[in-house]
Amino acid sequence: MNSFLSINDVENLPALVQEALEIKKNPHVYSDLGRQRSMCLIFLNPSLRTRLSSQKAAFNLGLDTAVLDVGSQGWNLEFADGVVMDGDKAEHIKEAAAVISSYFDVVAIRAFAKLQDREEDYSEQVMSAFKEYCPVPVINMESSTGHPLQAFADLITIEEHKKVEKPKVVLTWAPHPKALPQAVANSFSQWMQAANFDFTITHPEGYELADEMVGNAKVEYDQAKAFEGADFIYAKNWSNYKDYGKVVSKDSNWMVTQQKMQLTNAGKFMHCLPVRRNVVVEGAVLDSDQSIVIPQATNRIFSMQTVTKKILESTH
Ligand code: CP
User: What is the pTM (predicted TM-score) of this model?
Assistant: First the structure.
């Protein structure tokens, strides 16, 4: 693996999941792999899990890390080509990426969708620029349209908890007061389909994801019907794709409740976190045995560690 930007960088998904499960059993077995090498974690947006799980994964591999919070510590970056930089952007990605790559062996980036211009976000301008101008491997820690490390951790978690070979997995839209990107939902949809699970997406009409992200997933507008017999319920809000970046519904009837979880096949509840209690999901669901959000977050270590291990091996 030379870089990890999306599921397209995965050659053999079942083998990758098995590797992650093996690493989880013995996390320090590759602690020499990262010796005398280092990774820079670049954040253009906030994070708790991604930042800490990435540092933990690097620690387990013997890899040094540095964290750059561009918003508070770095120069404001310009990504467009040929612009006159007389505004608030002090440094161009061309110089920044080249300099960072001269200090580190791997670069990982978080850069959320701005939700202003769909074409710009879906062109992955920021992640593509880092990929183009960094001569070292690049890891996506959530970009405009995808969060593959999260989806990989979600898949590891489902593999650990599933009771049948091909579980019914439901991604449900849930209300939220703010406009959120589609990245988590997009990647989850891609990875669940790549895993060949029985996969349904449920959301209010008008909240369709991009066609290329929906793929061959079933789309069910009746949330209760979608929940029937589900083995896993994955809740996530996303802002509107058609009326791009807008919050066109805050319908609290879409919140996941204990009552709705009873429609499932004793299904497990998942969310990537952070989650707003009693907005996205009833607190009682999170506090119940059905919730696996903490093991899911723990698996962020092992998705990152597996990806980083494969990159270090290919660049040794
Ligand atoms: N799920 C996730 O990416 O969490 P953070 O935003 O806290 O990193």
Answer: 0.98
Q: Which two tokens stand for residue 66?
A: 């540095």
CATH 3.90.226.10 fits 149-296, yes or no: no
Cα(3) to ligand 1 centroid in Å equals 20
Dihedral sign, CA of 177, 181, 187, 192?
A: positive
Please state the separation of Cα 9 from the chain's center in Å: 14
List pLDDT tens digits, range 74-103. 899 999 999 999 999 999 999 999 999 999
CA of 294 to the centre of ligand 1 (A): 12
- Residue of 43, 142, 303 to mutate, ligand 1, most atoms within 8 A of C-beta: 142
* Alpha carbon distance 293, 29 (integer Å): 26
Q: Whose CA is nearest to atom 3 of ligand 1?
A: 50
**CATH entry 3.40.50.1370 includes domain 7-147+299-315:** yes
Q: Do domains 7-147+299-315 and 149-296 have the same CATH topology?
A: yes
In DSSP notation, 93-121 reads HHHHHHHHHHH-SEEEEE----SS-HHHH
Q: What's the rounded mean pLDDT across residues 221-228?
A: 98
CB proximity list for 33: less than 8 A, separation 6 or greater: 61, 62, 63, 309, 312, 313, 316
Q: How many secondary structure helices (H) and strands (E) does the chain include?
A: 12, 11
Domain boundaries, the chain: 7-147+299-315, 149-296
CA 76 / ligand 1 centre spacing (Å): 22
145-161 pLDDT, tens per residue?
Answer: 999 999 999 999 999 99
pLDDT given for residue 294 in this prediction: 98
Q: ipTM score of the complex?
A: 0.99
Mean pLDDT for 190-213 is 98
Atom of ligand 1 nearest to the CA of 147: 3
